[in-house]
Amino acid sequence: MIKIVHLTSVHKMLDPRIFLKECITLKNNGYDVTIVAPYDRDVCIEGVNIKAVQHPQNRFNRMTKTIYNVYKTARRERANLYHFHDPELIIIGLLLKCEGKKVIYDIHEDVPNLILEKEWIGPYPLRKFISMIMTALEKIAARTFNAIVTVTPEIASRFLPAKTIILRNYVSLRYIDEIDLQSIEKSRPVVIFHGTISKTRGIKEIIQSIGQLKGQAELWLFGKWANQELQKECSSLEGWQYTNYFGRKDITEIYGYLKLADIGLHILYNLPHYKGGSATKAFEYMACSIPFITTDNPRNREIYEGCSLYVNPMDASDIVDKITKLLNSDQLRQEMGQRGRQLAETRFSWEKESEKLIELYNRVMRE
Question: Count of CB atoms within 10 A of residue 202's CB?
Fold first, then answer.
């Protein structure tokens, strides 16, 4: 049996793309699959082996000790192929390639543009310089690896077409349909958001809009805050009294809440990093048959036609108007939810998308 190892120093062990989609798919197609990731113990889940490395204490610790531990653990596995998911692991990919291993680089995000938006790195000229270095490093490294996996055509265009595939973050309908509803009482209609909670994902405008609704709906909020200052600012807004913050939960739990919600939110600022992207949460709303509200741009209108309403992400009043429109019409919510589910089944399912992954692995292993 061919042994493969997926590597991450950033993502959770049960990350939906890494574990639920890619690794489970590969295991079901006859591969011996292991994930090396920060976790508290070694374990086997659904036939996938988890080799744990210590959780990083801070960003510096992650970029040094954690990366080294991932590399040591990966080498001990003596796999036929290594598949890594974080740009900070490029050096590990290069080392493994020098040792004669087959290596795949999975690029989840437009990293160079993302660096430009990370204010914690420093002033813009420094971020611009680091972004340029990352662009060059990715291009050089990608020529060395056996294959590149990306999530959008925009990212894929930076790499050699013969080595690159686009693997969308579509949803596993089978997995979602198996999840039971959560046992929780709803006192009013529910608007839901899950994922990284940050300024550029519209969290301030979302909570402001909930406040303007004056109790007509409540917000169920899941995820990790980008920083404590933002959390403190948002918790002082009027809408916070109508917000139920659940913290971070595994996606399998969140699906049980999604099925109970009335409206989903996928509101990103129109920034270069998000250009061309299609967030997993939008496809999850569609799979759960709930309508959602998203950023108004040509790409979103093309992809989500008939199952979403569109807003200016920086205008809380516009968000209020769209939430109110959905709350005032049970028929509209039902029709949009059904349309979303139809699209998920016919165009946006992981079951179909995963065929690209198997074809890629078969090709790489033949080389």
Answer: 27
CB count, 10 Å around CB of 5? Answer: 27
Give the chain's domains with CATH numbers: 3-170+350-366 (3.40.50.2000), 174-346 (3.40.50.2000)
pLDDT of the residue at 275: 56
- What's residue 251's pLDDT? 81
Q: What number of residues does the chain have?
A: 367
Helices 280-287, 251-258: crossing angle, 10 deg rounding: 50
Listed residue (44, 50, 101) closest to 75, CA to CA: 101
Q: Is 2 left (phi over 0), alpha (psi -120 to 50) or beta?
A: beta
| Helix/strand/coil for 153 | helix
**pLDDT number for residue 46:** 92
* C-alpha distances in Å from residue 295, one per residue of 231, 265, 292: 22, 9, 10
Distance of CA 153 to the CA centre of its chain: 17
203-212 and 228-235 helices, crossing angle to 10°: 10
Distances (CA, A) of 89 to 13, 53, 57, 93, 299: 16, 14, 18, 6, 31
160, 271 Cβ separation under 8 angstroms: no
- The answer to whether the CB of 164 falls within 8 A of the CB of 147 is yes
Q: What is the distance between the alpha carbons of residues 34 and 14, in angstroms, rounded to a whole number?
A: 12
Q: For the chain, list residues with pLDDT below 50.
A: none
Residues 6+ apart with CB under 8 A from 256: 179, 180, 181, 182
| pLDDT score of 278 | 57
pLDDT digits (tens, 9 = 90+) for 290-342: 999 999 988 889 889 899 999 999 999 999 999 999 999 999 999 999 999 99
Q: Which helix (H) or strand (E) holds 49?
A: strand 48-53
Q: Are 85 and 8 in contact (CB under 8 A)?
A: yes
End-to-end CA distance of the chain: 17
Pairing of strands 263-266, 190-194: parallel
